[in-house]
Amino acid sequence: MKRDLITLFFETLKQANPNPTTELEYSSHFxxxxxxxxxxxATDVGVNKATKILFPVANTPQQILDLGxxxxxxxxxxxxxxxxxxxxxxxxxxxxxxxxxxxxxxxRELLEALPGVxxxxxxxxxxxxxxxxxxxxxxxxxxxxxxxxxxxxxxxLEVELKLLxxxxxxxxxxxxxxxxxxxxxxxKARSPDCISCQVIDCCSYKEKNxxxxxxxxxxxxxxxxxxxxxxxxxxxxxxxxxxxxxSPKTAQKLKRF
Length: 257
Ligand code: SF4
Fold this sequence. Notes:
Order of helices and strands: HHHHHHHHHHHH
Number of helices: 12
Bound molecules: iron/sulfur cluster
Shape: elongated
Helix content: 55-70%
Radius of gyration: 31 Å
Number of domains: 2
CATH class of the largest domain: Mainly Alpha
Strand content: under 5%
Structural class: mainly alpha
């Protein structure tokens, strides 16, 4: 996608939603870190359901540690992979208490040193909590970027680096949330809602989901085939009618040859 189209793409998303936010519910940096850590391969809705009960009881690293592993598991057992997530969260809380005075660190390398926190989670924390223009490439951003031609890449890191390079600076801060929301609700994995898509004019995806166009294409093909068949039949009939029949004598002569 060319630079002027990229600008138009993000300007359009901005006009529709000037201040996009994460759908995870949180009220502190630590709550955000917990929610993001729990959200791997789970929906934000599912995570919010669990943290709504967990956070009023424990929303600091020390309080989570005080729950104990089994206690924490009982609050998050509705979330996929909850056992390993509980283990990671307990270990992360230990480090936060011992090395960071119970605070969430701002540096990428310190974040990525926390159990259960990879590059993507660190990017979300840096962007959402600390307002840094990072790009956390999740499944939605990976798909949308490749599909529409924003940034093609085989790995999330490749896509992340291309997006950071190509997205004009004024849009970088919110680009992460715009792309996630666009991928979650419009440019969906199985059936993108191209009819309602506001950035359709910028999108280079060849297989847009536009049923009325597909239908008229099919109709056009069918009509073309039918016309061709009818024409062929008519021509054959006409030729047969207009070609004079050989007289019996001529026919016999012809047979001899
Ligand atoms: S036109 Fe379709 S494929 Fe392109 S961005 Fe919009 S929803 Fe996605």
